[in-house]
Amino acid sequence: MNSLIFLDGAPRLTLVNSTKYYACAAPKVKTASGLHRGISLVLLLGVLASSEVVIGEDFLTLTDAQHRAVERSRQLSAQDSAVLASREMAVAAGQLPDPVLRFGIDNLPINGPDQFSIGNDFMTMRRIGVMQEFTRSEKRQLRAERFDREAEKSVAEKAAIIAAIQRDTALAWLDRYYAEATAATIAEQIEQVKREILAAESAYRTGRGTQADVFAAHGVLVGLEDRASELNRRIATSKTGLTRWIGDGADAPLEGKPPIDSIRLNTSSLESDLLHHPQIAILAKQVEMAAADARIAQANKKSDWSVELSYSQRGAAFSNMVSLGVSVPLQWDQKQRQERELASKLAMTEQAKAQLDDTLRAHVAEVRAMIQEWENGRERLGRYERELIPISKERSRATLTAYQGGKAGLSDVLLARRNETDVRLQALQLESDTARLWAQLNFLYPENTGSMPGHASTSGSLPKGAQ
Fold first, then answer.
1. Would you say 433 and 377 are in contact if contact means Cβ atoms under 8 Å apart?
2. Which CATH number fits domain 62-442: 3.30.70.1150, 3.30.70.20, 1.20.1600.10, 3.40.190.10?
């Protein structure tokens, strides 16, 4: 990939190859002569065409990829709708029930001289009225709070979704990054083997080498090219995986390996910090919702009254009437109904609390194990960088020097090269595994939160027996 930039008014062609940059001056344009300008422009266009220049192409960092993934996610808009639905229901639950319109005919004769007459018999009345149930304000407030807790649970679920999107996007980004890094290592080794093949063929022609050395070098080359083919497939697959999260732009060159040597978790306060983990927060909200249901069941032990006012019209010879009535549910069997309902809600609250505690313990143990594995990966990676990779390089260099001095065969050089390649690939695989652990640990929480989300208390003011 190449690009064109301008410095001090003079064009300069910058060739970008992976992470290496090469700059060369473009043909200088003489402003005094139109001919010179034309020649320079033709030369410049030729350079651009032959180099397949890409002007203004941006690099894709891990942070950029995560921002794009969050912005295009439909899951988050769905959670926003869920939050809005619960907020609206909270308002509705705090209102009195709708009044009931009641009308009818009372005491209509069905036989005799006044059969089906609505005005001749003094007892026949045409009635219209309205009935209103007056739900206790305590109950309405508790029902509204129940939906508020449900809205908060949806907010916690949204935070969990953001964290999952950022984590999965990071894993997809890292898969592509290390697939390309491994492919670059293999490509470098292929170029070295090609040079060794030329040397082996030259030695064979001059009688200093054997045909077996030539075949061995070609065999190593074929093996490396096969691995390169597999890595090309991995790169294409990783780009597809990254496209699933960020859409267009997954083919852009990657820039900037993330700082996998540090995580945002504080290992000394891990258990208290994980109380604020989105998945734990969701379970905590479920505890609060169960406790709210228990408080509603406790309040239901007190009946709500209904009041009815009606107007009754009789025949012209008789007076009209107004009626006022009150309805009160008789909870004559509270022990088997209301008490049983309350006991059920309290048991569900205890179930939610037990699930929360067990999930928290399991999560703490899982995260501790991941941290230990991540730290071990960093330690091993440091050993590769300090000792194993330099030793394998020195062995290759020493074997090549011995081969040039006639003290070693080409097979020894190829074996040393293969060992060096294997060590470098093992280091890349170890770094990839460590980076994946880093992503899973570092994005337990959404990255865009300035601090860990607050954790509401799950105790609250529960009815007796819910504590």
1. yes
2. 1.20.1600.10
335: three-class secondary structure by DSSP: coil
Q: Could you read off the pLDDT of 137-190 as tens digits, one per residue?
A: 999 999 999 999 999 999 999 999 999 999 999 999 999 999 999 999 999 989
Q: In what order do the strands lie in the sheet with 10-17?
A: 2-7, 10-17, 20-25
What are the structure tokens assigned to 81, written together?
A: 């709708």
Residue of 366, 357, 362, 363 whose CA lies nearest to 284: 357
Among 97, 95, 92, CA closest to 130? 97
Amino acid (one-letter) located at 323? S
Q: What is the DSSP letter of 446?
A: -
367: which 2 tokens? 């995260």
Integer Cα distance of 108 and 117 in angstroms: 7
The whole-number average pLDDT for the span 208-216 is: 82
Longest dimension (CA), the chain: 139
Check: CB of residue 79 under 8 Å from CB of residue 157: yes
pTM recorded for the entire structure: 0.76
**Can you read off the two tokens belonging to residue 350?**
């205890």
In b/e form, how buried is each residue of 29-60, taking b as 16+ CB within 10 angstroms? beeeeeeeeeebeeebeebbeeeebeeeeeeb
- As beta bridge partners, residue 243 has none
**Residue indicated by tokens 């007190």:** 302
- The full set of domain ranges for the chain reads 2-50, 62-442
H or E, element range at 372: helix 338-383
The tokens describing 141, both together, are 């407030």
- Copy the structure tokens of residue 68: 């794009």
In b/e form, how buried is each residue of 405-444, taking b as 16+ CB within 10 angstroms?
eeebbbbebbbbbbebbebbbebbebbbbbbbbbbbbbbb
